[in-house]
Amino acid sequence: MNKKLISVLATIVLLGTLTGVSDAKSSTPFGYTSNGVDIIDFELDFKDIEVMLDVKVSEIPSTIEITFDREFFDSTNLDQDSEFTIIADGDLVYYDEIVTNSKLRTLKFNLSSDVELVEIFGTHLKGITAQAPIIEVTQEIRTTQVEQTGKINELIEQNQVLHEENNILKEENKKLDSRIFEPENLVSALEEQVTNLNTIVTKQIIVIYNWVLDYSN
Hints:
The protein is α+β, with helices and mostly antiparallel strands. Helix content is 47%, strand content 30%.
């Protein structure tokens, strides 16, 4: 096969590939622009009211701006706009809503390098309405995150208080050490040191138990 024929075939293949990408983009029922990521395919899930995107991230940072016609896909609750929920390979994705009007909503978000599947949940998809608005799930996720953060901060504060109390007890034990070899103070000093040590150990056990219990919940 001569070089000229090879060149012609390569051109045909390249044009076919570019045409396929163009057709794929023009066939989507939503508009989008992307930087560092390509939408390879999409699927509509009318059961869970979601738009699923097969993506390929080519560089970081990668950004997608996707615009939905409200009649096609929307997220509302009691006739008011509610948040979409975006999940990328199982992880919650935070987004900015950069355009909102009576007809359109445009979402902008970033993806990490290993993402392959993006799921965008709403409440209405081509006339089909979700039985339970996904916004409730989003609120539960965020509420749980806030509660866990509050528990962790509380445990950190308890640990700090315990640390300060330990320092005070150490100073008291140093004073007791100076008296411990005085015969008349030997028994009482030892008893006080044992009491202080038991106090430290008991408080440490309580903090560790609470930490493990809250983390497992």
